[in-house]
Amino acid sequence: MTARILIVGGGIAGLSAAWGLAKRGFRVELFEQGPLPNPASSSHDEHRIIRHAYGEMQGYAHLIVQAFAVWEQLWQALGRRHYLETGSLNLLRCETPWYEGTRESLAALGIGFHDVPLDRVAAMRPMLNLDGVQRAVETDGAGMLFPVRIVTDLVVLLGRLGVRLHAGAKVTAVDPVRGTVTVGGRVHEGDAVVVAAGAWADRLVPSLKGIGVPSRQAVLYLAPPPDLAEAWATAPVMIDMSQDGDVYCLPPRDGMRLKIGDHVFSRRGNPDEDRIATEADLARLWTAARACYRDLDRYAVLEPKACFYTVTKDERFIVRPLDAKGWLISACSGHGFKFGALMGEGVAAAIAGERDPAGVEAWAAGLE
Ligand SMILES: Cc1cc2nc3c(=O)[nH]c(=O)nc-3n(C[C@H](O)[C@H](O)[C@H](O)COP(=O)(O)OP(=O)(O)OC[C@H]3O[C@@H](n4cnc5c(N)ncnc54)[C@H](O)[C@@H]3O)c2cc1C
User: Fold this and answer.
1) Domain check: are 158 and 306 in the same one?
2) Does the Cβ of 205 fall within 6 Å of ligand 1?
3) Is 197 touching ligand 1 by the criterion CB < 6 Å?
4) Are residues 280 and 245 in the same domain?
5) Could you report the average pLDDT of every consecutive run of 10 residues in the chain (368 residues)?
6) Is 25 helix (H, G, I), strand (E, B) or coil?
7) 48 in ligand 1 pocket by Cβ < 6 Å?
8) Where are the beta strands (DSSP E) in the chain?
9) Confidence at residue 333, expressed as pLDDT on a 0 to 100 scale
10) What pLDDT was estimated at residue 367?
11) How far is the CA of 307 from the centre of ligand 1 (A)?
12) Do 181 and 217 reside in the same domain of the chain?
């Protein structure tokens, strides 16, 4: 009898694990507490950055090569691509080990990394406030993934592959020793259970409590004024690094809106809360964004949005076996979408016996 695998969570990690397992012939059932896909999940947004530039976390620069390969397999399976290569522009307002770490890892990978004169940046990107910028660096091997399109297509693909999809099915307990999940008082038995529950994961996996902490994050969706529209329409993904933390920006391209967010973790909040950013959520982001972009008051605010992910102390993912029949995938950090498909595939390969389960944790943490 073919093994039956139960998956908790319909974000990029759970959907990708389901895809990896269904491809290998497993019987797969996926339980999602909301709709599929779920707008409250971390994986449901217009765009996410993917890049090789990982500073001192060089393991992730190398792992992203594997991630790109899995995305490529997904585009093949879907018959379309949900990725736009834009390159990245990185503005450094302080000394940071990011520069040397990235230069080294991109050189090893043969990926372009160039210092750009600031007067050239000023001419090409009039929306930027370059006061205090010490260095500008462009890199290749970077761009935008389109998550809503990806997770929607994945849900449809899984249905075609025979995965049993349970929307509105909140899992209240997981038993990784017996391989069971409880939904609405009913116990479902599997040969293995994969918990990919994003910012909610510590409710089902007690060992994650205090280690993977839910963090409410704010982003701003904006419309640039007409005189800057042309400059924005050709912009790459941009990251602005200062002592106060990184501000990132995804340009309005391929039908998506302009989005600005920061990489400073709130480490507070409850993922059941709404997804509308309040003035308090946004105060820090507005200050940081105004330091990076000129004339932000001339932009229309389209949506102040809140989102949740789980952060660990060192920003490394936690993907590991739980007892005899369980797996945890917690790629839910500020950089987990780009790796989500790879993490799901890695766990599927381990369950299928194609890779050593004992090695998965270090691999996923970028420490291999
Ligand atoms: C503002 C913001 C910006 C980001 N930017 C980037 C970026 O530029 N690049 C990048 O790579 N990453 C980025 N990320 C991170 C990335 O989006 C996440 O790491 C990734 O989407 C996490 O996927 P996941 O499947 O682990 O979790 P999720 O997508 O949150 O999915 C978990 C799912 O589990 C379900 N669930 C939870 N509990 C239960 C239960 N008890 N029963 C049933 N279902 C349950 C939830 O409803 C949810 O649908 C960003 C995140 C945010 C919030």
Assistant:
1) no
2) no
3) yes
4) yes
5) 95 98 98 98 97 93 96 98 98 96 96 98 97 97 98 98 98 98 98 97 94 93 97 97 96 98 91 94 96 97 95 92 97 88 98 97 94
6) coil
7) yes
8) 4-8, 27-31, 48-51, 83-85, 88-92, 113-115, 135-139, 142-145, 164-166, 171-175, 180-183, 186-189, 192-195, 213-223, 237-242, 245-250, 258-262, 300-311, 318-322, 326-330
9) 77
10) 93
11) 9
12) no
What is the total count of domains within the chain?
2
Does any domain span residue 338?
yes
Residues paired with residue 85 on neighbouring β-strands, in sequence order: 143
Atom index in ligand 1 nearest the CA of residue 338 equals 11
pLDDT of residue 140: 98
Residues 130 and 14 grouped into a single domain: no
Could you tell me if the CB of 41 is within 6 A of ligand 1?
A: yes
For ligand 1, the distance from its centroid to the CA atom of residue 334, given in whole angstroms, is 9
Mark whether 194 and 276 lie in a shared domain: no
How many whole angstroms separate alpha carbon 211 and alpha carbon 168? 28
Within a domain: 250? yes
In ligand 1, the atom with minimum distance to the C-alpha of 14 is 25
Give the pTM: 0.97
pLDDT at 281: 92
Residue 355 and residue 223 share a domain: no
Range of the domain at 344: 1-46+146-212+312-368
* Per-residue confidence (pLDDT) for residue 139, from 0 to 100: 98
* Best of 7, 43, 308 for a ligand 1 pocket test (most atoms within 8 Å of beta carbon): 43
Q: What pLDDT score does 46 carry?
A: 97
Protein residue with least CA distance to atom 50, ligand 1: 334
Co-location of 42 and 162 in the same domain: yes
Cβ neighbors of 361 (< 8 A, separation 6 or more) are: 318, 319, 320
Distance from Cα 7 to the centre of ligand 1, integer Å? 15
pLDDT at 305: 96
Q: What is the CATH number of the domain that holds 276?
A: 3.30.9.10
